[in-house]
Specification:
By secondary structure, the protein is an alpha+beta fold. The protein has three domains: 3-121, no CATH class; 125-262, Jelly Rolls (Sandwich); 271-353, Phage tail protein beta-alpha-beta fold. The protein has helices spanning 3-10, 16-28, 33-43, 51-74, 84-111, 113-120, 263-266, 280-291, 315-325, and strands spanning 127-132, 138-141, 147-150, 154-159, 167-178, 187-190, 194-198, 202-207, 213-220, 223-228, 234-240, 244-249, 255-259, 272-279, 293-297, 305-311, 328-333, 346-352. The strands form three sheets. Strands 1, 2, 3, 4, 5, 6, 7, 8, 9, 10, 11, 12 and 13 form a 13-stranded mixed β-sheet that branches. Strands 15-18-17 form a three-stranded mixed β-sheet, with helices on one face. A two-stranded antiparallel ribbon has the order 14-16. The longest helix has 28 residues, at 84-111. It is elongated and about 105 Å long.
């Protein structure tokens, strides 16, 4: 089968021998890869009209061709006597006439979805949101190859495919980013009034909605931290070097920076819980997100700090160790039944012994 013969058939210019060849091709080879390619090339001849009218006119063209073939077949003289073998032959040829346009249309539909996708891509909402609920962590790989680790109670919102001059996503919570290098498309993490921009690097961002701090920790590469002003403009706060951690208070504008061991800021992504001279209030907040509980810290013990590393310990084990390291005791209150029939979070109170 050749493309010329296929086109000749569709325009009803075949001789009797050529028609027999088409029928045999349909019976034995029509669904082979080579034949599908021929069908697709022929189908493209129907796509020369403007896109706005393309779909309706494409169907009209196909139906016209089918009706034309049927009309030709029905023009056989009613007085002519047709034997059973001739009827069988006629039906076979009629089937061929009907099958080819359907085959080309079907192949086009299966093989050219990208054509329609490109036309309608701007009309489709192309935004995804991934949430790591309290008590769980998750890992996400973005379309550019960037890997994102989400800590307990965190979420990101990002496009399925990055478009434009930047790769932007929005973070609420804490995330560790291993960014695929692309100097032509900076990677931007947008948080509450602070943006962190990188080209290709590894860094951690903490920006929980109930916390006034946005913390950035740079492991490798370079990032620029920018503040979103009230009029929507960006103001550069500074750039980080590897091994640097910066806390920025979005309410006061206060900035603090430290350098050194970064493990305590990123160990969470590997399942470790590390406290290094960490205040008990921050310890309580991290345990709340990790175990989906509510912890109340008494005012008289808010100056206590902890330096400890936990690996796969349960909440009860952690609470026991904390109470042994400092003069602190804890009590677990019973859950309360809410009006909707559900129960409140488990509540834990830290008090001085």
């Amino acid at each position: 089968m050749t493309a010329e013969l296929l086109i000749k058939f569709l325009y009803n210019h075949c001789t009797s021998d050529e028609l027999d060849e088409v029928v045999q091709w349909i019976d034995k080879e029509a669904f082979s890869d080579g034949s599908k390619s021929l069908a697709y090339e022929d189908w493209k001849s129907f796509r020369e009209i403007a896109y706005s009218d393309r779909q309706n006119e494409r169907f009209d063209l196909l139906l016209d061709k089918i009706h034309h073939k049927i009309n030709i077949s029905n023009s056989v003289s009613q007085e002519q006597k047709i034997t059973l073998p001739l009827i069988t032959t006629w039906l076979t040829r009629a089937a061929a006439i009907l099958l080819i346009p359907v085959l080309t249309f079907l192949f086009y539909t299966l093989s050219d979805n990208s054509f329609y996708s490109a036309k309608h891509s701007d009309l489709v909402v192309d935004s995804l949101e991934i949430i790591a609920p309290a008590g769980s962590r998750t890992v996400v790989q973005l379309s550019d190859g960037t890997e994102v680790h989400l800590n307990y109670g965190s979420k990101i919102k990002y496009p399925r495919n990055f478009k434009g001059d930047t790769r932007e996503l929005t973070l609420s919570g804490e995330g560790y980013f291993d960014v695929t290098h692309n100097p032509r498309k900076p990677f931007v993490v947008k948080t509450k009034r602070v943006n962190i921009t990188a080209l290709g690097t590894k860094f951690n961002v903490l920006a929980y909605p109930d916390n006034d701090l946005v913390a950035t920790t740079l492991i490798d590469g370079k990032v620029v931290v920018e503040q979103t002003t009230e009029n929507g403009h960006l103001k550069t706060i500074g750039s980080l070097v590897p091994g640097q951690h910066v806390d920025y208070n979005i309410n006061t504008g206060a900035i603090s920076s430290t350098k050194g061991d970064m493990e305590k800021y990123i160990a969470w992504k590997d399942g470790f819980l590390v406290f290094d001279n960490t205040g008990i209030q921050e310890v309580a907040e991290r345990l709340e997100r990790m175990f989906n509980v509510e912890i109340v810290v008494a005012s008289e013990i808010k100056d206590f700090t902890y330096t400890v590393k936990f690996v796969d310990e349960s909440l009860s084990q952690i609470l026991d160790l904390l109470s042994k390291a400092t003069p602190v005791k804890y009590k677990i209150l019973p859950r309360e039944k809410l009006p909707d029939g559900s129960f409140s979070k488990q509540k834990i109170v830290f008090e001085k012994k």
